[in-house]
Amino acid sequence: MKAYAIGGYKEPVTLHDLPEPVAGQGEVLVAIAASSVNPLDSRLQSGAFKAILPYEMPLILGHDLAGTVVAVGPGVIQFKAGDQVFACAGNGRIGTFAERIAIAEKDLASKPIGLSMLEAAALPLVSLTAWQALVERAQLRSGQRVLIHAGSGGVGTVAIQLAKHLGAQVATTVGTANVGLAKELGADVVMDYRKEAFEERLNGYDVVLNTLGPDVLEKSLKVLKPGGKLISISGPPDPAFARLIGANWIVRQVMRLGSLKVRRSARRRGIDYSFLFMRPDGAQLSEIAKLVDAGTIRPVIDQEFDFDATPDALERSASGRARGKVVIRIAADGAVGRPDV
Predict the structure, then answer these.
(1) Number of domains in the chain
(2) d(CA 319, CA 74)
(3) Cα separation of 40 and 32, whole Å?
(4) What count of Cα atoms within 13 Å lies in the side-chain half-sphere of residue 295?
(5) Same domain as 70, residue 29
(6) Domain containing 15: what range?
(7) Are 67 and 84 within one domain?
(8) What stretch of H or E contains 128?
(9) What's the pLDDT tens digit per position in 250-271?
(10) Angle, CA 103 vertex, CA 102 and CA 106 arms, to 5°
(11) pLDDT score of 340 more than 80
């Protein structure tokens, strides 16, 4: 099987010929038609998470997939060969920059009917992140106000649409070239971060979803009202996350100290700070697929790359200039395109 992998942390992504995956108990073998790139892929490549997410080498990168089921393992009841699916791979079993993958049945969902494989592959990780931040963690309600940073990014483009569906008033920060896109997605307040300081304009917000660095994180505390929630997917990880992953004592202390400043600042203001690390969830993806087919959420695709240009796709995503998602056309054991192709 052809796959793009790294032989060690900080090494380049190269094409490998690796053993064929086999569907085990509760797993489904999927021929991957398309994948997409997330910032997490580059961070794993750099070794940023090696203390908490140990992987064996060579490591196939990639979390998102859309494709066709080719075989099922023992105990699988929801899917059969020929089903079109999409998913986010995780829990130690990533690797979607490849022709095939064996993935847990519980992480899979039926592909949205109206999307191509490429379009569907753009959604899993970012839509699950938005769902778990806004629906699960923030419990965002109609009439509340939410600030979503980097509204033109992969997570931001989906989060804006989901927040509007939930009835919230949405503010977002984007670059000059993406003001129009943010408005098109439904944002009520769009701020060009090059021209305007969001912390000076906004106040009394219920929720902030942060995808940016520590300077933005600190400033975000100023726009929240007491009882508000600051949810960050870019860190710093907090003690609750350390407990969730069963981290050892050293890692727990590192996370405690690393998040101490923001947690103290949040506590003084009566604000709840938490770090969110997305988890795969097929049931949540099924709910997201319903919203997609209803026209409530649509993927935003920046650029398409062929499988042999996977390193270029990673480079494009890492540039920070992508609008929405960078997708990869793999087309193994099946056509990429509309469902009727």
Answers:
(1) 2
(2) 42
(3) 19
(4) 0
(5) yes
(6) 2-123+299-329
(7) yes
(8) helix 124-131
(9) 889 999 999 999 999 999 999 9
(10) 150
(11) no
DSSP secondary structure letter of residue 196: -
Dist CA 99 CA 333 (whole Å): 8
> Of 203, 236, 241, which is closest to residue 219 (Cα–Cα)?
203
User: Is 292 domain-assigned?
Assistant: no
Give tens-digit pLDDT for 179-203: 999 999 999 999 999 999 999 999 9
Largest CA distance in the chain: 57
Structure tokens at 42: 């580059």
Closest CA to 32 of 131, 126, 108, 92: 108
Residue 222 and residue 268 in contact, taking contact as beta carbons nearer than 8 Å = no
SS3 93: coil
CA distance 16 to 18: 6
**Sequence-ordered list of residues with C-beta below 8 angstroms from that of 216, at least 6 positions apart, any chain:** 149, 210
Residue 336 resides in a domain: no
Q: Say if CB 68 and CB 87 are below 8 A apart.
A: no
Q: Number of helices (H) and strands (E), helices first, in the chain?
A: 12, 16
Amino acid at 167: G
Best CA proximity match to 151, nearest among 120, 187, 177: 187
Let me know: does 231 contact 274? Beta carbons within 8 Å: yes
- Return the H-helix or E-strand segment holding 256: helix 249-258
As a whole number of angstroms, the distance between CA 91 and CA 23 comes to 16
pTM score: 0.94
**Per-residue DSSP letters for 73-88?**
-TT--S--TT-EEEEE
